[in-house]
Amino acid sequence: MKLTLEEVEHIAELARLRLSEEEKERYGEQLSDILDYAARLQAVDTTGISPMSSVLPARGKLRPDEPRPGLSLKDALRNAPDIEQDQFRVPPVLE
Which CATH superfamily is 5-42 part of? Predict the structure, then answer.
């Protein structure tokens, strides 16, 4: 699907891009190639193929999610640069 110059300019306007004439031509060709490829993918017969979330096989077994003790308050605050009332003290963002 070959994009017209007007379509490329419209897309650039929607994306808030200021393009030179050379860029409009180059991006028009690239976008047209992308649309042609998408059209080729649409033409592939996928009947009988179940949808999947990834084309890669699932690998890597996860450990069972079991509760474990976390850090103690003392350990969590150990490297904090500033502490106040057992909490991290951070400088104000807004005054």
Answer: Glu-tRNAGln amidotransferase C subunit, N-terminal domain (1.10.20.60)
**Residues 70, 82: Cα–Cα separation, whole Å:** 21
Angstrom distance (rounded) from CA 35 to CA 39: 6
- pLDDT tens digits, residue range 13-57? 999 999 999 999 999 999 999 999 999 999 999 898 888 878 887
Q: Cα–Cα distance between 28 and 49 in angstroms, integer?
A: 34
pTM across the whole model: 0.51
State both tokens at 55.
Answer: 């084309």
Please give the backbone phi and psi of residue 84, each rounded to the nearest 5 degrees, phi first.
-145, 125
Instruction: Return the C-alpha torsion angle 59, 42, 17, 20, nearest 10.
Output: 120
